[in-house]
Amino acid sequence: MAATLSHPGVYIQEIPGGSRTITGVATAVAAFVGRALRGPVDVPVAISSYAEFERTFGGLWRDSGLGYAVRDFYLNGGNQAVIVRLARDATSAQLDLNGALTLDAVGPGGWGNGLHAEVTHASGEEATTVADQQGVDADELFHLTVREGPAENPVLVETYPNVTLVDGPRRVDTVLAASRLVRVGTAPALPGTGRPDAGGYDVDTADPAATGTDGTHLTAAEYTDGGALEGTKQGIYALRDAELFTLLCLPPSVPDQALDDTVWADALDFCVRQRAFLLVDPPPTETADTVRAWVGARGLTANGRNGALYFPRVRRPDPLRAGAVREFAPCGAVAGVMARTDAARGVWKAPAGVEAALAGVTGPALALTDGENGSLNPYAVNCLRTFRATGTLVWGARTLRGADVLADEYRYVPVRRLALFLEETLVRATQWVVFEPNDEPLWAQMRASIGGFLQDLFRQGAFQGRTPREAYFVKCDSETTTQYDIDRGVLNVLVGFAAVKPAEFVVIGIQQRTAAAAT
């Protein structure tokens, strides 16, 4: 803004630099969708540790692969995750406070049957003072304590003093909106009158309508329902409300079984639109001879750039079965390896090789030979293999479009994930451009901002080439944006990059030379 020149003298004016710094988005935010013991349903919940998953969703559960996958993710170097809990035919426990108030457990599940509520009445001069402050009668105040688990060893205890059923600043339904245990039920309606009788209240487990249940195993209808759930943001589509996710894992509803095959195509289509990457787990019944045809038979090749398949399953001890070794889907462990590799080397480094060891596993469910690995790799099957000195490793880095016969430009996982990283970063970092004057000053700012971001990646080794000119380019001028585009309100920016491709096959030539030739 120009200074008002009102008198002779020196005026100071701060001038904007004209360049906006671009910061890359996170590359390994893993979304997990599946069945859990507790927690909100069809709501994306961001977590940053496995302990947080245990507090919110109940931890490991024999009847679901979700907890095991999340645990493997953090064991292998994961950091940020988003959890969506799905439930089928599950019900929520309910506490009836003598007909004056009903409390529903937060989220369905049998865990709610251990809830206990304690009501005490406020009285005396202190109650009168608090009532006057709230604008209610003293005999309408009560203290509410909600507990999960036995009194001698509770899981969680929450206390809410001086709440009411009538309108006021401490009306119980607004206060309990932040509770991790209960919410106010639909009956009786609030605001009400009076207050619940003093005493303790437990879930009436003899009443099926008041008892919480865990429900049954999930089907395709809970995940996608053929895409019909997208409009209601349920199933995997609840992730549309997530701030960001870049990896999608769908651990099976039953650890020893497979996800419904029809879910994978819908999930892959969703990942394409969300600029995310899907980790596909083939059924446990697949063998080295049959898994090659599994991808094509499920229609996963068309959108295969945004997904990768890892085979076979992994074996690891199960803490819920006294350490007995069981087989589990590898998606969580592989997602953790991707997060660890991104943090150490960058998203452009293939999450495979001797640095991609799987922690917490005893080995793959099927020991693959070099010959079997060689027959699977051309069909874009990424193998998990055990080597004597290095343990169990991720030994493949191809997308579902990585079959040799397809010759796709995004055949490699790091190349595709780098492209998705650039797309998501630039979409978020250039929102300020909307409604700016579409002319050369704006074009210059775009070139400077995006060019600076790509130059930083070039210095880190993200692109091929000896010079920036060989590694990337940013074009935003009158050639990309013509007068016709300007008249339509369109700004075109062209960004190109030369991705670093992994050294998938290393050939070392050895030649024998005679002593005479050596001299």
TrEMBL record:
Residues 242-400 form the Tail sheath protein subtilisin-like domain. Belongs to the myoviridae tail sheath protein family. Pfam families: Phage_sheath_1, Phage_sheath_1C. Gene3D superfamilies: 3.40.50.11780. Residues 409-512 form the Tail sheath protein C-terminal domain. PANTHER family: PHAGE TAIL SHEATH PROTEIN (PTHR35861:SF1), PTHR35861. It comes from the Bacteria. This is Tail sheath protein C-terminal domain-containing protein.
